[in-house]
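Service request form, structural biology core

Requester: graduate student, group of Dr. S.
Request type: structure prediction, single chain
Budget code: on file
Notes: please return the result as structure tokens.

Sequence provided:
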Amino acid sequence: MTTDTTPQVATIAPTTTVRHAAPKEPRSFNPGRALAWAFMILVILVSLFPFYWMLRTALSSNNALYAGSHSLLPVQASAGGFERVFGLQTGQEAIDAGGAGQAINFWRYLFNSVVVSTLITVGQVFFSAMAAYAFARLQWKHREKVFAFFLAGLMIPAIFTLLPNFVLIKQLGLVDTLLGIALPTMFMTPFAVFFLRQFFLGISREVEEAALMDGASKVRVFFRLILPMSVAPITTLAILTYIASWNEYFWALMVSYTDKSRVLTVALGVFKSQTPQTGPDWSGLMAATLVAALPMLVLFMLFAKRIVNSIGFSGIK
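Core staff response, request fulfilled:
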């Protein structure tokens, strides 16, 4: 009896599949899409044109500005406006260039704006986060009624609070100080509390209850659990608060009288009022405005996506 020990080799016939890509069909012209693109481009141009005109005026010669008012390009291109803003021109050179001849203490005003905006942002975000946590998670009597009453503050125009705040700041002896400018909006605002409360309501209660069962106190849960989980909305609120406090003008104008507390927005108004005989120093004014707005533009461009995503997540329009 013989046994066949010849190994059997399985042969697999190579299979090749040739896939032919389907030819792309040319997109048909969509009038609605074309109209939408045209409208979007128009909106972008209208939005960016003021910034371009500000840059064009800042780079123009002040003396030739009126003669070339119809030109879209800088008239007799010059950096004299920026030199006057940064104090690189003497008084006589500034007068010859069409300026007022009075120096603007730009770096002092910039420092004041940074200090005031930082104080307001840090204080408002911190205290608003604590208030929002109390409204979102702590159980106490009449919580919802108090929150509704607190939220009603959104309907009070800011101008109604100027006089009471000024009397309070004056009685505290904080007029013409940086703390006097920052104090009224340094603690919390209804918008900031509402913004953070919406996010805190969405955090899982099981995670918080697990931390409490492990022996953590409410304060520890807030600082070690809630705040780290809320970095995105807190960052968004901080950016929005910083931009708003940087652009604040009327309250700072009421409280500050000298250079030691004058912020950039007020300083620009003072710079404009130093009008020479030939007319306002538009070149210097636009250069100062551009430099003052530049930090906020950079900040928004860096965090624009985070701001839009967080606002959409919180359901705030």
